[in-house]
Every structure is written in C-alpha cells, then in structure tokens.
C-alpha cells in the first residue's frame, strides 16, 4: 500500500520519526544521561504514497559500546546512523539530543548531535542560566539616588532576575573541544543552574549577575563572539544562537537570535576594533 502512488501527487519534502527514546550507555563519575531521544528524517519519492515509517522507529538505537567522554556526545548521531537499514532515495538526517545531569549539583544541560548520511553535520548545547536586567537596575539606582558608573558596569543595586534558556548550534563537520564549548556558553549564561546551592554560592551567583547585568541581546552576542573565536571552525560554517529570557516581572518572555556564518561574525568583531 505504501509503495503505491498517492492519490494527491504533491511532493512531501521530508518524512520521518521524531523523538524516539534511546539508551546511550554513558559511564562517568560526575554525570549521567537522564534522557536521550533521536529523530530520523528523509525525503520520500513523489510517486510513493508512504515511506514505511513504522519500520523505521525500531531501527533507531545506539549500537554496542559505551560513551566515556562528553565530547563523544557531539557525534552520537553518526553511531545511530549505522543501525539504519537504508533503502531511502537520499541519506537520512539523524539528530540526537541527550539530557545530561551532574550527580553532585543536579545541574543539567542538553547536548545535540546531527548527521547527514552517517557523517557529522552539526552539534550544540542547551542550558538554562540566569541574568539581571540592566535597565531595571539603572531605574532603581536613579529612584534611590544611588550613583554608580553605568548600568553596563553594574553594581550591587538590586534588579529583577530572570532565567534564560540558551541554545547554541554549530553547523559544521569540524568538532571543537567540548570543554571549550561548554565554558563559553556557561560563562555567558551563568548556567546551567544548580539544584543544590550553599548560602555562600547563592550569594556569589546573585552578586555576579548584578555586578554584570545583561540584556538578552548581550548574552547572545557574548556567546556568538566566544564560539566564533574558535579558529579551527571554517568561516563558511554556520552558527545559530538563541536566547529566551523568562521574565520574572512581565507576563511575556524576551528573545534574541543570531544566525550567521563564522566568517560574518568574525568580520563584525574585527571591524569593530
């Protein structure tokens, strides 16, 4: 039946299965994978009614062998590709998202891996951090007649805080060290947030975001500049940074997005000097 011609001859760009739960055997003294999902997408011939999708989902799994380093999560989609039987007219797009949690603190983040035809095509990170609003801080400073250098420099003056969800995706076959990637995203977003904080750690976190308050646009720019500074990634490859600020005193969220090539971002930074 699925091999027959469709009644309506309109081309479908891609079909597939989304978020099939998979098990990734990751072993570490510091982290564990709490959830992992994979999605498979591929084109379907305009002359075919269907693509036998029920047969695809059972093929989606992680092959034998253990993941021992977080760096390897950037390429897990390649390994999932090896379990697919094929038969599609074009190579499938495989994506994997693995939710990683730290034992000691409960800090969690998501690692993304994408491949096309069994070869890595992209990777990234998502985490939730926190920031303080510069304009609210400046307003409070003015109303309380407290003088400080500027809102960009920050101070110990109060402001409203908001969690910020950051997603960073690199479209490249060139891998970078996971620790460098993580450090850039974490430094700009002050994430991932910890389930367990001592009183001193909580105070240090709050002081740090109030001494350097940031708009959602600032966080996106800082991350893009940091990732673009990794020189081994070719200029033609693409970087996408999205930041969603979950406002604490407004019933809406704020959003910033950068979608550009590494070359364009590097040129912007160079011309600004």
Summarize the structure.
The protein is α+β, with helices and mostly antiparallel strands.
List keywords for this structure.
8-stranded antiparallel β-sheet; Urate Oxidase; 2 domains; 273 residues; 30% strand; 8 strands; single chain; 6 helices; alpha+beta
Task: Describe it.
- The protein is α+β, with helices and mostly antiparallel strands and 273 residues long.
- The chain has two domains: 1-117; 124-273, Roll (Urate Oxidase).
- Helix content is 23%, strand content 30%.
- The protein is built from six helices and eight strands.
- It has helices at residues 76-81, 134-143, 178-189, 199-211, 216-228, 262-271; strands at 15-21, 31-42, 93-102, 108-116, 119-132, 161-171, 238-246, 253-261.
- An eight-stranded antiparallel sheet has the order 1-2-3-4-5-6-7-8.
- It is globular.
């Amino acid at each position: 039946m699925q091999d027959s011609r469709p009644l309506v001859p309109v081309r479908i760009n891609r079909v597939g299965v989304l978020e099939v739960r998979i098990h990734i055997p990751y072993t570490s003294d510091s982290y564990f994978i709490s959830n992992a999902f994979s999605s498979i997408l591929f084109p379907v011939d305009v002359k075919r009614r269907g693509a036998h999708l029920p047969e695809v989902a059972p093929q989606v799994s992680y092959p034998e062998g253990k993941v021992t380093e977080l760096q390897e999560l950037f390429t897990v989609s390649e390994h999932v590709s090896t379990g697919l039987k094929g038969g599609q007219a074009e190579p499938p797009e495989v994506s994997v998202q693995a939710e990683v949690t730290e034992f000691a603190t409960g800090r969690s983040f998501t690692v993304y891996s994408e491949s096309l035809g069994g070869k890595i095509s992209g990777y990234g990170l998502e985490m939730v951090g926190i920031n303080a609003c510069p304009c609210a801080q400046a307003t409070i400073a003015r109303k309380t007649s407290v003088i400080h250098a500027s809102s960009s420099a920050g101070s110990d003056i109060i402001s409203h805080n908001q969690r910020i969800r950051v997603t960073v995706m690199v479209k490249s076959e060139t891998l970078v060290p996971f620790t460098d990637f993580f450090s850039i995203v974490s430094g700009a977003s002050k994430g991932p947030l910890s389930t367990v904080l001592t009183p001193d750690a909580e105070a240090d976190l709050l002081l740090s975001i109030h001494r350097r308050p940031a708009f959602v646009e600032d966080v996106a720019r800082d991350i893009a500049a940091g990732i673009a500074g990794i020189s081994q990634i070719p200029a033609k490859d693409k970087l996408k940074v999205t930041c969603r600020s979950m406002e604490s005193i407004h019933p809406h969220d704020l959003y910033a997005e950068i979608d550009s090539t590494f070359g364009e971002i590097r040129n912007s930074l160079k011309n600004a000097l």
